[in-house]
Design goal:
The chain has 8 helices and 9 strands. The relative contact order is 0.16.
Length: 210
Amino acid sequence: MSAKTWIDTLTPMLQEMRAELGKQDIATVATLTGADLHGPSSLHLRLWDDEWLISFPDVAICDLSGRPCPPDKEIILLYYLSHGDGTLPANRWVSFRDLPNGMFYWQAFQGYSGNRLARFFVNTVGDFERAATRLGGRRIEGGDAMYAFWPLPRVGLAAQYWCGDDEFAPRASILFDASASHYLSTDGLAILGSQLVSKLIKAPHSAYDM
């Protein structure tokens, strides 16, 4: 499912999701999702580098300047807040195919995520490392280089890269913390994975950029 299709599918449910979430105890929602309480009636939540305030009980979402949240980001935030069940990060990384129903879409996901990443950083692991570091990634063990990112407090993604040689082409993959499906659907996680790849490609990565 494409990002647009996922958004279009969930858009009719936005009001229902907002109404159901507004009935919840705000402190409980904060505890289950890792969001921060911002005064007595709002939450503070980060999505990538953007910071959002979610007011209760109307569940209106705006940035720190009071501007409304765009629909594509609003859907991710509402889904996350509505479905987060408090499961802590597993610190174990799994493939997209290991997510619920992920096997059916794994090849498509790999095509626009890991394969795209490998084509861009062709045997330039240093550039990949610099891009990941610029994005705030944390170096972890795996591949020739692997970095973890947390676009949401309880949703972890990792970018893994292998250099090629005479026999094998360079490879890359986007992995997910094993607990991620407790907070977003597989389609939502695919969107975050695609966003991570785009961010890595757009990040300054050359030594000359430093």
